[in-house]
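Kindly review these tokens for lecture notes.

. . .
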Amino acid sequence: MPLSFYIVAGVMVVSAIGAMSLRNLVHCALCLALSFISVSALFLQLDAAFVAFAQILVYVGAVAILIVFAILLTRNSETNSEERSSNLWMSLAVTCLLAAVLLSTVIGSSVNAIAGAPAPVKVADMGRALMTSHVLPLELIGLLLTIALLGAVVLALPEKADEQDEIDS
């Protein structure tokens, strides 16, 4: 494997660890975006340009930015460091368990080698499929992202004084 693969894989692993372990949520979201970009670079190395650019558009351009906006709009709901440190051991145990299950599945798989290189898929064919047979899932994803952004805005709206007085009484 070329050296560029190891560099991109290293950046991806370090950014994924940063997304899980940093204390500032904005920094976590930015590390997640860097991890998405690294996955896109791996797709480029596999000569899957369409998938790489779709990865950038969908995950970095939409999901990661939506996460950053949601964090910035709901800034007052951050958890304190005691809650995060108490969940660290549980999340580490679940991560190790999931890694063991995935590793045993890969090792036990009957498909250990790729038979041959798949036939290249033209971008025009993929675009045609997205706009004909897969148009409903494409539109539902756009609708879901819009609803998530509107939900973050509604959660971030300040409470009105009348509603606050009713809550206090």
Notes: The mean pLDDT is 80. The CA atoms of residues 87 and 147 lie 29 Å apart. The radius of gyration is 21 Å. The chain has one domain: 1-77+123-164.
